[in-house]
């Protein structure tokens, strides 16, 4: 296996219509991933749909329905080679209905670009996006202040947005001094690949340069193999191919694996037959890689999105009940015992019931607050006990932090986010 540049997964998040897809598409075009001919075709298609200026967004929004609606629904992946790295770019939806897909995107990312339009500034969803990134463990964040052309490339307009977001970053507990802010114009290509002559006051990196400036992600290869399944495909000549990101460990051809919970709920045993990434075959793949694998003895009916491929010698746990620290982000009223929202853990979605609020936690110090608690409201952080209403693969953060984080959704919104601190494994 030739020396491969280190892989980094970068997610682009931001409010709908703030130009994420356009920034990504422009980056693909300027770095030569997309040819002049392809762009011309997309431009014509954009005009045909009455979406002039959407051609760059179309590069990532390559699903027909998305083109017609003009919003990013699913997660799109693209590979880009920089001087130091192989970057897998995940363009995550900003549209409210699609936050659950964004959760999946963020849970696979090593770094993120939060895109904010210079004129509109911070939006209600900006805070939600930051909380999610934080909970999903994405600590390397850069902010793109996009559409600088709409504010005449003025430094004071950029500073205003920078101040707004800096205040928000602090409330979410992200260190502002570690966050680079980049003024860009996706549609015009300013500061995307080359430095823009329109903003001589800006001395920092371009979007392309920033991709190599993020700190190197720590690869959790020392932990046992965990690969949550994102999708399952039937591929002619190969068979059933589950696709997903290897969260932890090193997967090798010939390795014995156990898929949990599987259709039976008790797990399925198999052996890794092939590992494929970006249409190439590999003998092994490390944590951080997005791969498609074929497993001997496992058919399409046996497995589904949300299942986890585990090292057979050290499989993950299925939780009978679990304790978690949660932060309530956005609930219309209050959360009390008996509440049963849907938990989004890695790629799984399982309803879980709130059995007990153990204690509140002071968000500034992290210390428990004394006294009985009957309900939780927005802004509260608490230690709670939950019971899954189905088979949920989950691990304690002390055992495997990559398999312990989750978001809680209810009625189309993310109401809370959290991390599992303790659990009682299911006995079979």
Q: What does this protein look like?
A:
The chain contains eight helices and 25 strands. It is α+β, with helices and mostly antiparallel strands and 428 residues long. The chain has three domains: 7-210, P-loop containing nucleotide triphosphate hydrolases (Rossmann fold, 3-Layer(aba) Sandwich), CATH 3.40.50; 226-311, Translation factors (Elongation Factor Tu (Ef-tu), domain 3); 319-425, Elongation Factor Tu (Ef-tu), domain 3. The strands form five sheets. Strands 7, 8, 9, 11, 12, 13, 15 and 16 form an eight-stranded antiparallel β-sheet that branches. Strands 2-3-1-4-5-6 form a six-stranded mixed β-sheet, sandwiched between helices. A six-stranded antiparallel β-barrel has the order 17-23-20-19-24-25. α6 (124-135) links the parallel β4 and β5 (140-146). It is globular, with a radius of gyration of 22 Å.
Return the CATH topology of the largest domain. Rossmann fold
Tally of distinct domains: 3
Radius of gyration: 22 Å
Specify the helix fraction band: 10-25%
Number of strands: 25
Counting helices, strands and paired strands, the structural category is alpha+beta
The poorly predicted ranges are: 61-77, 93-106
| CATH architecture type of the largest domain | 3-Layer(aba) Sandwich
Distance between the termini: 41 Å
Separate helix tally: 8
Corresponding CATH superfamily of the largest domain? P-loop containing nucleotide triphosphate hydrolases
- Residue-averaged pLDDT, rounded? 82
Q: Summarize the biggest pleated sheet.
A: 8 strands, antiparallel
Identify the CATH class of the largest domain. Alpha Beta
**How much beta, percentage-wise?**
25-35%
């Amino acid at each position: 296996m030739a020396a491969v540049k280190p892989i980094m997964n970068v997610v682009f998040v931001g409010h709908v219509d703030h130009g994420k897809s356009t920034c990504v598409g422009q980056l693909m075009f300027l770095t030569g991933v997309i040819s002049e001919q392809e762009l011309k075709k997309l431009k014509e298609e954009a005009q045909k749909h009455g979406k002039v200026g959407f051609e760059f967004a179309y590069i990532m929004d390559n699903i027909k329905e998305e083109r017609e609606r003009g919003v990013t629904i699913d997660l799109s992946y693209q590979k880009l080679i920089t001087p130091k790295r192989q970057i897998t770019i995940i363009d995550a939806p900003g549209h409210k209905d699609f936050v659950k897909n964004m959760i999946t995107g963020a849970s696979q990312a090593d770094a993120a670009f939060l895109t904010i339009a210079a004129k509109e500034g911070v939006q209600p969803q900006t805070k939600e996006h930051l909380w999610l990134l934080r909970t999903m463990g994405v600590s390397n964040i850069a902010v793109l202040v996009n559409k600088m052309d709409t504010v005449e490339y003025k430094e004071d307009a950029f500073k205003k947005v920078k101040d707004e977001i800096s205040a928000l970053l602090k409330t979410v507990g992200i260190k502002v001094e570690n966050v680079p802010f980049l003024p860009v114009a996706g549609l015009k290509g300013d500061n995307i690949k080359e430095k823009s002559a329109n903003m001589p006051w800006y001395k920092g990196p371009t979007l392309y340069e920033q991709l190599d400036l993020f700190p190197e992600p720590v690869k959790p290869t020392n932990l046992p193999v965990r690969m949550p399944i994102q999708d399952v495909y039937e591929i002619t000549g190969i068979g059933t191919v589950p696709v997903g990101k290897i969260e932890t460990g090193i997967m090798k051809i010939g390795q014995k694996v156990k898929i949990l919970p599987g259709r039976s709920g008790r797990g399925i045993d198999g052996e890794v037959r092939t590992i494929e990434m970006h249409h190439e075959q590999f003998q092994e793949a490390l944590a951080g890689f997005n791969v498609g694998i074929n497993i001997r003895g496992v058919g399409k009916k046996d497995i589904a999105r949300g299942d986890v491929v585990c090292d057979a010698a050290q499989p993950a746990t299925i939780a009978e009940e679990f304790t978690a620290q949660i932060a309530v982000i956005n609930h219309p009223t209050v959360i009390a015992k008996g509440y049963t929202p849907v938990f989004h853990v890695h790629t799984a979605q399982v309803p879980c019931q709130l059995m007990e609020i153990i204690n509140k936690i002071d968000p500034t110090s992290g210390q428990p607050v004394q006294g009985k608690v009957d309900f939780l409201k927005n802004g509260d952080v608490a230690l709670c006990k939950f019971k899954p209403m189905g088979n949920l693969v989950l691990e304690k953060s002390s055992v495997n932090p990559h398999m312990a984080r989750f978001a809680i959704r209810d009625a189309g919104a993310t109401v809370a986010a959290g991390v599992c601190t303790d659990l009682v494994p299911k006995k079979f």
